[in-house]
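Sequence only, no structure available. Ideas?
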Amino acid sequence: MADVAAEAGLSSGAVYTYVASKDALFHLVFASAFGEVDGDGASLPLPTPAPGETLQLIAKGLGREARTPRMKAALEDPSPTDVPGELRAIIEERYDMVARLWPIFAVIERSAIDLPELDALYFQRGRRGQMNQLVRYLEQRAAAGYLRPMPDPAVTARLVTEAIAWFAWHRRGERDAAAFDEARTRVTVVQFCCDGLLAP
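Reply:
I predicted one. Tokens follow.
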């Protein structure tokens, strides 16, 4: 709380005129990120949330903001007419989601170390579920001859995921982050993944 106060230019005690506790501040981070704050400031300090309330807020927000409808549609289509276009749309969808939500993901990943319920929600259900979807997609399209058969689809899915995560998110913390043009970075990552996966 002292660090938050210093960053905001407040005394440590003044923070508590806005939020009633650390748990209230933690809840506010996600309420703000997911557009759940009314903004009138009439009921300050914000009260400490009920047990499980913040986890429910995060689950609801991620369920709404981290959806991958293009992937879902592809998994439900056994006879695609345009696999290059489909694959590009899937990679773009994932890249854009990470580029948009990375500040939320960063808070969740740092906090999940101390919160087993959050770890289960984000890592075990959310991230693992999306990874499994990508593995299934790669297996299905490779079996049908549309994509290159890879020795290990799970490794391939992780390779694609990590490339997207680094360029859409983790590079922002690097010293040379400004050397990467946003639009060209996105196009290059998408093109690289598609060229590597599409069957000759």
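The chain has nine helices and no strands.
Hope that gets you unstuck.
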